[in-house]
Amino acid sequence: MPVITKISQQKKDKERYNIFLDEVYEFSVHESNLVKFGLTKGMQLDSWEKENLLYEEEIQRAVNRALHFLGFRMRSEFEVKEKLLQAEFGESVIQEAIIKLKKLGFLDDHAFSEALLRTQKNTSGKGPNAIKQEMNNKGIDPSVQEAVLEEYDPQEQLATATKLVEKAARKHASIAPAQLKQRIQNALQRKGFRFEIIKEAMDAVEFEPDEDEWTSITETTGEKAWRRVSIKYKGYDRKRRVKQAMYQKGIPFDRIDAFIEKKELEEDGE
Questions:
Q1: Any idea where the domains of the chain sit in the sequence?
Q2: How far is CA 143 from the centre of its chain?
Q3: Looking at the DSSP assignment, which residues form a beta bridge with residue 176?
Q4: pTM of this prediction?
Q5: What is the third-level CATH fold of 109-149?
Q6: Does domain 154-203 bear CATH number 1.10.10.10?
Q7: Is the C-alpha dihedral spanning 196, 152, 118, 94 positive or negative?
Q8: CA distance 36 to 60
């Protein structure tokens, strides 16, 4: 039976030790496994003990790889498993490494989900549906998702959605209300807010422009449509296509008719 004839501390990694069997270097072990298996000079090491030791070393190596991965930011258990699989660790080794990481407090899907919720609602302004989808992508258990998302109460969702509506309304004040509302509703749906929250947030914001703003919106929209359509069409066809284009942009018919009449009078006066 092989005998440990030398144990030497590595120079570059003080937590690892080289093991020599019968005067020949055989493998290295982490300090924790050196203590756990009681390795000492003169100790006999049978094949079964050696296999167990090397298995523990592989688990420790997986733990270290995971800790490096976790050093950049918090990760879900699913993400760590995927990373270790990519590094070609075996399933049983990964499972043991995950257990160790949980015991050490480095893996906690509930805490991870709470951090994800805070980040997504505070920095990205996302609603619960979008955050839930992200949790799904991270492999979070549905029961954990439900428990964490309950912390995102409807009033907070409404406040977040309303801020997004107000910001968009100010930024796109040159767009007709009907078109702007549809654009904002679509954006809030993509953000993951429910219809009830979107409707309430939209109702809380004033979209109707004053007369000067309406004039500016109509002129800007109409001029673009007139220039584009006039390249290929004249007369009735142009009038019909301009009216259609402006209506699709949310301009009321009475304002469209007034704009087209003005443009036709300008042409007649040339």
A1: 4-103, 109-149, 154-203, 218-268
A2: 20
A3: none
A4: 0.73
A5: Arc Repressor Mutant, subunit A (1.10.10)
A6: yes
A7: negative
A8: 12
